[in-house]
Design a protein that fits this description.
Distance between the termini: 13 Å
Keywords: Fatty acid metabolism, Lipid metabolism, Transit peptide
GO molecular function, one term: hydro-lyase activity
CATH topology of the largest domain: 2-enoyl-CoA Hydratase, Chain A, domain 1
InterPro entries: ClpP/crotonase-like_dom_sf (IPR029045), Enoyl-CoA_hydra/iso (IPR001753), Enoyl-CoA_hydra_C (IPR014748), Mitochondrial_ECH-domain (IPR052377)
Strand order of the largest sheet: 1-2-3-4-6-8-11
Structural class: alpha/beta
CATH architecture of the largest domain: Alpha-Beta Complex
Largest sheet: 7 strands, mixed
Family: Belongs to the enoyl-CoA hydratase/isomerase family.
Strand content: 15-25%
Number of strands: 11
Protein name: Enoyl-CoA hydratase domain-containing protein 3, mitochondrial
Shape: globular
Order of helices and strands: EEEHEEHHEEHEEHHEHEHHHH
Length: about 270
Amino acid sequence: MAEIVAIKRSTPEGPVWASLDKGVLRLVLSNPPANVLSVATMAALQAQLDGAMDDKAIRVIVIAAQGGVFSAGHDLKELTAHRSDADRGRAFFELTMSRCSALMQSIVRHPKPVIAEVDGLATAAGLQLVASCDLAIASDQSTFCTPGVNIGLFCSTPMVELSRNVSRKQAMEMLLTGETIDATTARDFGLVNRVVPREYLNHIVGKYTQTIVSKSPLTLKIGKEAFYAQAEMSLAEAYDHAARVMVDNMLAKDAEEGIGAFIDKRQADWTGE
């Protein structure tokens, strides 16, 4: 099996701290207390995600946060400051929303699995960030909401990912009331995968990441891409697409190696080809 680099880099400064350990790139929102998704924070996250695209040492990405708030969403003070612009802030508002939309889509389209490690409040665009990740593991102290309606600003962009994770009725309940739900309710809604005691959160996320790291990186890339592609198709189109993906996957060297290893009862040696 290809060697996994133990430590490649660590950048403990700026709005996003990044470190790589055993194939896992850990990105930590580091502008407490609210960990807002300012333009600078979104740019830092985007840069890290873009840099991980073709980095073979990175197999899984975890997005976490410092402090008791995962993310309170967009920086309302930053947005409000631009109301004095000649266009009343329109250009900056458009920049903020376009950057956010691009960031969320890059998580969904990223070839590497992305896991949200949530410990605390995830609200508005912060909830959108959680919903955009492939998996979300939350501590039992975490809470979630889309409170825009409370301040006259409907959470329209968070709605996109929220409505793709939970049922319409549950999404509309959150969007129309702006009320906060606890971690267990978020799990029942389908917004997060698991809820664990706070003291075990990092350990459980670590178990997920190392399980995923042990798989063929090519297979994960193929599967993630196919999952999101077929989800937007009709049933017949989805089956046609998935069948083509399966055929191409079968022809990959990693599939040949994996099937051979299973038959021979040995550990597979992934090459990513």
